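Example 3.2
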Amino acid sequence: MTTLFPIPENHPQRFVLHNEVHARAPFILKLPVRASHLALMLTNEQKLLERQHLINLCERFGVNPPDKDADHFVANFEVFQIRWEQHGEFSTYSFYVHDTPKDPFTDSALKKVPVDWLSQLTGQMIVAVHAAILSEESIQYKETNDLAWLAEYFAGNAVIGSKVTGGAASVFTDFRIHVDGFSRFLIIDHDLRAQQAGRLLQRLFEIEVYRIMALMAFPIARSLYSPLNKSDRQLFTITNAMTMPEKNDALLLDELTNLAAEVENYISSNHFRFAAASAYYKLVGQRLDDLREVRIQGIQTLGEFIKRRLEPAINTCESVSYRFTLLSERVSNASQLLRTRVDIIIERQNQGLLSSMNLRAKMQLRMQQMVEGISMVAITYYAASIVGKCAEALHAYGFKFNPEIVEGVSIPFIIIIIALNTQRIHKIIANTTE
């Protein structure tokens, strides 16, 4: 890129990160509009198939396909518009049609999409929504009237709704899946601008998707109650046994180690799902705040309905996750305590063994000193005998002295020589071992 000033070279990610703020921008919609929204859970292999399937649709209508690394795509396909987004766990498709049918939910936007292409979508459906933005005049809407007639659009179910976007629109739904497999949003246009309409639909669709994704952890949390309580009771049994002196600490430590492995396996297997539930729940709250709801007298708001039902489920997930974390810490503390006790016992045994070895070494030293003294006596005896024999030989040769006296006098000198040599040997050994 050409620069006008002599500034340093751009970071490779500068423009990508800068333009991220413009990613996934909402549609600028022409009102009135009908929309259908699909969210599908996908594996990594299915994501590759999904991209090729989207390219096939583009080729069919002569539209430029998405880039190879694109994770969102917006295009106009003659009679409908499409918005595709690929997320970490799921992908979403939004289809828009700009007209006003008699029944916006029976004659949905999805009917404009090729049936054969829809039937080959990959993944598992987690959210399917029909939505319509209609003018007040088209359905003769007046807020002052009794709104019970709105239930006709929702198969007679109780309606939930509120004013949104500063009073520019009113949103109604029943948060139920109807016989066609889709839930429904009816938006009444009071004074919506094209950009507001796009943002409003996007927020409603995201609320529905993130709400379901947050609840994905709820069945897991309920299924973990039994193993959690079992592990808790097992830890209590082990720690109670630790207070009894007759119990085998080594066996208890093995049980604690196995319990720690089980608990950590539960935590590592479900940590992602619980963390994702918390993140999705925060996103739901943010999107509800972005709606800027104002109560319509006599009906419950979207935020009240969702939070009253979603919050207990998320609290359950957080409670189970926290209890497993706390259980892991308790198991770790118990293991550390038991290991300390085992180490102390082993240390005492080692001290006893060392004391026994020290006593044996002292006994061996005393025996060695005794043997050494006896050896000095024996060496002195044999050396004096040799001196006596030599003296006898010299006496026989003609020297005038008594051999016995010579032998007796030599004994102290022999003892001194042997003692000095023994002391010298001890010094050599001491210097060698240091």
